[in-house]
# Entry
Amino acid sequence: MTKITTTLIFVISLFLITACGPNGAGIKGVAEPPGVSVQDVSFERFTWQGGEALFTLNLSNPNSFPLPLTGVDYALSLNGVEVGNGSREQSLQIPARQSRMVQFPLRLSFVNMASVLPGLMQQGSMNYQLRGSVHLPLFKIPFTRSGSTRLRP
# Structure
């Protein structure tokens, strides 16, 4: 085997271990999953059925080697109800120990959003969850970001 093939097999093995580990925690200091954080959300267009939002995600690579991403899939839930989802096949490389801002469209369902509204108005707060997976050439690494926010002062 060539040195490149051996190195590639080693890195892929580490990522497979990372993907199968508890919470995708990785192997600290050797191979870690990419960080995902939401930087911005803008609403692009609306129809009577739904709309489209544009999410700007910051994808960060904590590793000492570049990450070749092939795409991302994602879904947004409000108070446990999925109100939108999307996927994007896009090849890009995140350099070692660097970040990239990437925009992804999110299709929104007004029917699902309408089912959440009564609870939101009554509770005065909203729980949200953005979940999905970052696609690498041979496997996917899942991510989840969640929290809550108050709707009333």
Remarks:
- DSSP finds two helices and seven strands in the chain.
- The helical segments are 3-20, 110-123.
- The chain has a mean pLDDT of 78.
